[in-house]
Amino acid sequence: MVLFRTVAASLSLVVTVARLLTQPAQEPTRADSLSFAVIAGAYVLTVVTGLRLRRGTAGRLDGMVTVVGDVLIATGLVYLSGGADSPLTFLYSLAVIGAAVVLDWRGALVAAAVSTFAFTMLLLIMRLTTPVDVVTVPAARVLFVLGSNALALVLIAVLSGYLSRQLSATGGALSQSEADLRRLGRLQQLILSSMPSGLVTCDVQRRVTFLNTAAHGILHVEDNASVVGQPLEMLLPGVSTLAPRATRGELRVRTPGGNRVLGLSVSPLEGEAGALLIVFQDLTELRRMEEDLKRTDRLASLGALSAQLAHEIRNPLAAMRGSAQLLAQEQSRDAVVTKLTGILTREADRLARLVEDFLRFARPPEPQRRPVALDALLSETVDMLRADPLAREVQTEVRAAESLTAQVDPDQLRQVLINLLRNGFQAAGPQGTVRVALARVEKEAQIRVWDSAGSITEEMMGHLFEPFFTTRSGGTGLGLSTAHSIIRAHGGSIRVTSHPAEGTEFVVGLPL
Q: Which Pfam families does UniProt cross-reference here (predicted)?
């Protein structure tokens, strides 16, 4: 209504100015001055109402004032344009329609009554103030004009009031529907954002169209813009081999955060022909725990067998070594006998050490726990191994973000570190790098031993902690198995990741 009034006042101003410009040059008449005053009043009323609307302080009283102002402006323009013969009496109808818009049907009826009263008073004043000999409009015509305008205003008030009610009801229903849609949209976004499972959709061309928050976290995707529109195979390699209605499947994908094992289901997206909906969970930790349990079972079985074999071997081995020592004491002059006796003694000692390793793996001693500064233990172990021939020309770094103390057996933990570091030295080789880091992760102290080689393959991963499995010439294959047993006895965990481009990293977790 404010915009409409502004346009109407501007058009009135243009018409008045055009009329003055088309007339011979003369001083503006009293009627012209009154016209400008009425237009100025319309502008003032419009500005005041607009400012109150902008500040949010306008109310029903402002609507009533606006309607009364519209009636007064219409009355002024009708007076200036001829009274009963004025072509602008329709302005009263606009005032009634405006009242119906801002004050409902009751306001429209009141505006019709006020307009009728104002028009009647205007004609009555004009009739009384005009000399009798100058009056040209008969009284009957004046009454007819008043009656017809009053009837028209009442009818317009009733019709506009009805339309206003319908418009208000429709607008209210539309506003409610929009509010419901907004609530549903927010609820949908909350559901998608709160889902613990990853969700990905793609179109018929197999291009990604949407990822939820969980999918971002699992796949280590920074934002939608980087993947939306990309082929689905780039995000989930191998997913297209699954059927369009695969209820369950597993997929191994490589992400910026490392290799992940996904358990996923694929189904058509209803409402879009050819589109797919993919829901998946991160099963990496679950599969790792399953592998740890299987490995623990295998190690327990192998440990029991190793203990039994070691026990059976130790007695005959001791007899063989004793016999060899007796032969060596006879001081035989035969050089061949002396040489063979030395070989027998040396190999018997080597077998004895191997049996001790078997026993240590099969029945590791109970950890003698005490508070140990892990950062100091790391530094001491690395300093001790710097003189190892394997560590020559290998760059070794130690990083400890903070001092951490844990209840551990220092001798057993040092043995684990020695095994991991020597494996790292050998894998990295000359000009390689081995890095040891210590950090707190939640309620766990993590020791990370990283080497730059990345030489462990996927096939080797499943057997890495099994006894007697080794890729090193002359190795017994018991170092990592023993390390695994020690860490498990401490209630911790040990895991490994390896890639030629990123190196190999063993992560030892110890409870704090």
A: 6TM_PilS, HATPase_c, HisKA, PAS_4
